[in-house]
Every structure is written in structure tokens, then in C-alpha cells.
Structure to design on (260 residues):
């Protein structure tokens, strides 16, 4: 897949990973209105049992798998509701009591989370960005907060949108973040929720960043352009390769000189 400047999803992934020192592959996410649609796209592996959507994205970003499945096989009621596969229920609202310690407000919390229209999403595909066989609806990054800062700054520079606002909810971080970005065609950043922390392999304090798929090549192009102009990807210390040299700002003791 390419755009007018011949930047591909493969070269975009390489740029993000090399210049931002990402630990994981960016994950391309595609939603399908029909289960039959995913049959035309190949996958590397098939899930042996029902999994959470967090686990699908974790396998794509950590193992490099192209994966696909139908929403009715998702092992997470919160995700199934977020994907529009079922209507919110009183039983699911009870599961939100632990977040707010108020039964009435728990129902309101459930009702106000991101949710695709009922029946809109019947199937999905997740893949490393470089391997996606289809133009993604959303690209998800699991990264540290300072890497997220750079990605979102490059979104601002590429798309000429400032400031950015995000949509925190008490859970459904990965599924809800992807759906919110998909429906609103805007970037999203959120923390891990309880489910994504335990089942999504996020033990290092990462955050989730979601970029609309139609804009991901623009963001990659902005990163490459800014790096070329500045001599490095870091916006903290221009010209440095690392996205944020970890030294005390302005400390006179931390200086590096050319050798004699």
C-alpha cells in the first residue's frame, strides 16, 4: 500500500521503530461489516480458542502475526459491547461498580463509553503495520509516554490540528480507544485499563496511542521530515537520535565535547 509520495506501510513502520526506538510493532487494525469480508485476506495464525481483543493486538505487536476473527468469538463482554456486538446489560453494568462504587452511576458509565453502532463490526483483522494486507482503519502504538509525545506531536505537525483532546473511560482502553478513533477519525491516547493490563502484556507502564489509518503515512512522513531537518528524532534535544535524552535539563555537568 502506498500514497502519492511512495511511502509504504512497511517503510512507515521501519521509520517509527528506528527513529522512536519502539519496543513493539505498530498494529494495523481493520474492522469489517461482514464476516465474509475477512475471508479474502490471509492470516499467519488462527486463534485456537476465544481470546480478548487485547490478546490479538498483543500477538500482532509482539509476535508479528497477521490475525483475524469474528466479533462473536471475542472473550470479553466489555469489548463485545464496545464493538456493537451486543447491547449494554445490567449484568455488565454491575461489573463497572468496582470502578465508581456507585450502582446507578456504573450504569451511566457503561452507557457513555465508546460504542460502535449495533452490528457495524462483524469481524476484525490485526497485523503489524508493515504486514497489513488491507488499508487499516486505525493504527495502534503501545509505547512509553515520551514516545507517545513524539507520535502525537508529529500528528499535530502533519495534520495541522492543535490542541489534541483525548477520551478517557474507566475500562475498554484498547477496544474502546480503537473504536473511538475509528468512529471519530481522530487520534486517541489512553492508559491501560484493568483488562488490557492483565491480558494485553503491558507490564512496563506503557500507554496506548491510536492514529486513524488514513493519516498514519502522513504522521510517518512528518517524523522523517522533522528528523532530517533537525538531525535527529528527539524534540527535547534537537539533533539527538534518541527521542528524549535522559539527562537533567540544562545541567552544566552533563556536557559532551568532540575529542581532541
Amino acid at each position: 500500500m502506498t500514497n502519492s509520495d511512495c511511502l509504504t506501510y512497511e517503510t512507515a513502520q521501519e521509520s517509527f521503530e528506528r527513529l522512536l526506538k519502539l519496543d513493539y510493532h505498530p498494529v494495523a487494525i481493520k474492522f469489517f461489516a461482514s464476516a465474509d469480508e475477512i475471508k479474502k485476506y490471509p492470516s499467519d495464525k488462527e486463534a485456537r480458542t476465544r481470546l480478548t481483543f487485547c490478546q490479538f493486538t498483543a500477538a500482532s505487536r509482539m509476535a508479528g502475526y497477521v490475525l483475524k476473527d469474528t466479533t462473536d468469538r471475542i472473550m470479553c463482554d466489555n469489548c463485545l459491547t464496545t464493538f456493537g456486538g451486543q447491547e449494554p446489560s445490567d449484568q455488565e453494568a454491575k461489573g463497572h461498580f468496582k470502578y465508581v462504587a456507585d450502582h446507578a452511576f456504573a450504569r451511566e458509565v457503561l452507557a457513555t463509553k465508546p460504542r460502535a453502532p449495533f452490528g457495524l463490526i462483524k469481524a476484525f483483522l490485526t497485523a503489524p503495520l508493515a504486514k497489513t494486507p488491507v488499508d487499516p482503519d486505525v493504527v495502534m502504538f503501545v509505547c512509553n509516554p515520551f514516545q507517545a509525545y513524539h507520535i502525537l506531536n508529529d500528528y499535530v505537525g502533519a495534520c495541522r490540528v492543535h490542541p489534541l483532546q483525548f477520551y478517557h473511560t474507566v475500562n475498554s482502553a484498547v477496544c474502546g480507544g480503537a473504536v473511538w478513533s475509528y468512529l471519530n477519525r481522530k487520534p486517541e491516547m489512553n492508559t491501560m485499563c484493568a483488562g488490557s493490563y492483565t491480558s494485553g502484556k503491558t507490564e512496563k507502564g506503557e500507554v496506548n496511542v491510536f492514529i486513524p489509518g488514513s493519516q498514519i503515512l502522513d504522521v510517518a512522513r512528518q517524523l522523517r521530515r522533522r528528523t532530517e531537518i533537525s538531525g535527529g528524532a528527539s524534540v527535547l534535544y534537537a539533533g539527538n537520535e534518541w527521542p528524549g535524552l535522559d539527562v537533567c535539563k540544562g545541567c552544566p555537568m552533563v556536557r559532551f565535547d568532540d575529542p581532541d
Summary: The chain has one domain: 9-230. The mean pLDDT is 91. Residues 9-230 form one domain. The longest helix spans residues 145-159.
